[in-house]
Amino acid sequence: VPDKALSFSTSLQSIKGVGPVRADAFSAIGINTVLDLLNYYPRKHLDRTTVSPISKLRVDTDVTVIGKVQAADLRKGKRRQYFQAILSDGKGSITLTWFNGARYLKKAIKVGDRLAVSGKVEFFNGFQIVHPEYDKLKTDEDPVNSGSVIPLYSISAELNKTKLDSRSLRRLIKIISDSLKEIPDHFSPEFCKKNELTHINSALRNIHFADSESELNEAVHRLKFDEHFFLQMLMALRKSSIQKTGTKALNKTGPQVKLISDSLDFELTDAQKRVIKEIKDNMARPYSMNRLLQGDVGSGKTIVSVLAAAIAVSNKVQVAVMAPTEILAHQHFESFKKHMEIAHITCAILVGGTATKERESILKSLADGGINIIIGTHALIQKDVAFKT
């Protein structure tokens, strides 16, 4: 145990029980400091108040049981060996079967081990769970591993090689938690009270060592709130930065937009008209637009994009439309081409599968300004793709 209080930036290697080998294993999964380890949240929590007695299990139910291993060994299957263990809680027993990782499990699970096991109950010569999740538990005298809510961590192959399991990881995090200085909350007490947030100290402790389900829920709520809050702050800062970066204001609406609108064989919905107006207003400002257009399949997002592109072209600039797949790029190309031909706007498509000669011709025309709208995949962001405007 460290003699003095730790800080978030303290290297894990300086913590008793880590050492250079385990430090390298932690580093391989991006954990280098005390803060990194505190932010390595459990993959799930075992609530021991909801543990099921083995004698009262029912088939096709997801359960958690705790018991002692009565027998454990490799078995011969038709094609390969598998590992099987018998778990008993004193009033009933259940068979645990793993077809993968049999040799590793033979070394990891021994007769007499206390296991917490989760999975779906099946019936084959008695109750059984195939490929259950499990965690080794110690005796009730171990306060870190015997609370009503037990955290279960993902253990990487690198950590496994250093003989670090979920139980020993809990102990390490407990050492760090007990040795850390009081963490000042980045939110004021008034802000926390208004938004029903527990203190950050409590959240970081209880995500790992909650004494009850309610404490765990409060910790999860606080940490999720922080994640979303700072993500929104980052997006707001980026938006502010974009607005400070000047660009050409596209404030003209040429005849192309009206030609396309008048040629439609359907009436635009009020929502489409509203969104097109918002996009037009955004494009008329002297900074870049950052917008997400969301709608169900068939709700008319493509025609909104077509009209937005036509507004851009009417302001003497070129437009790039990028799709995640070649199939989607071709679909967009056919849609854009059908509408743009009416307004004498030239479109082309550029994807990874475009033939070399055709690609060279498209790149030349794009650089000369002969192509108004280019549609494609990531092929549009290669170094040799140049626009006139």
UniProtKB/TrEMBL annotation:
GO biological process terms, semicolon-separated: DNA repair
Keyword Cell membrane found: no
Keywords, alphabetical: ATP-binding, DNA damage, DNA repair, DNA-binding, Helicase, Hydrolase, Nucleotide-binding
Domain Helicase ATP-binding: from-to ranges: 282-389
Transferase as UniProt keyword: no
Pfam families on file: DEAD (PF00270), RecG_wedge (PF17191)
Gene3D superfamilies listed in its UniProt record: Nucleic acid-binding proteins, P-loop containing nucleotide triphosphate hydrolases
Parts forming coiled coils: none
Name of the protein: Helicase ATP-binding domain-containing protein
Taxonomic lineage from the root: unclassified sequences, metagenomes, ecological metagenomes
